[in-house]
Amino acid sequence: MSSLSYLHRFEPGDGAKAPPLLLLHGTGGNENDLLPLGRQLAPGSPLLSPRGDVSEHGMPRFFRRFAEGVFDLKDVAQRTQALADFVAAAAREYGFDPNRLAALGYSNGANIAASLLLLRPESLTAAVLLRPMVVLEPKQLPDLTGKRISLLSGRHDPIVPVDHPPRLAEMFRRAGASVDLHWLDTGHQLTEGDLQLAAGFLAAES
């Protein structure tokens, strides 16, 4: 796989030194979906938005699964490495600072962002995980000291088991990250509350 083989969109920042943002869509999304949200939540930031290279009945994803909540863990690991390599190559190609890169991921995109933190922690300095669940549980956790992670979860989410967000938050804390877990009175869909929390988190990165 070529290091830049992901279909993607890149939008340069406005030169205001805002940190770059990696946008990771949910199942069935594409590289265009989160760009408006990225512009809204992180004005001035360079935006990198790849399309997941796995097709599930025609719907792009970032890794394979056997059923809802049942993942192909070998594929998760391989795709995580490939995405990390893509991000590093994109930083060289487009000239953004990889050491300041934050991720904004929704659902499947949040899960691959969590996998990046666990398997290739050098890829991200911070992450907003919208509706994440536990996919990987490495036997040996990486050192995530200095990294900031915000988990935004719905109390009535029919897809994410209720114990997953606190388990994931605890895993990141044990690895040394600074972690916030917010519960919103909603389901899997995003709300204005999500956007306000995400914007506040990303503004602190600037």
From TrEMBL:
Its EC number is 3.1.-.-. Pfam families: Abhydrolase_2. Residues 74-203 form the Phospholipase/carboxylesterase/thioesterase domain. The keyword Hydrolase applies. Keywords: Hydrolase. Gene3D superfamilies: alpha/beta hydrolase. GO terms for molecular function: hydrolase activity. Transmembrane segments: none annotated. SUPFAM superfamilies: alpha/beta-Hydrolases. This is Hydrolase MhqD. It comes from Lacunisphaera limnophila. The lineage of its organism: Bacteria, Pseudomonadati, Verrucomicrobiota, Opitutia, Opitutales.
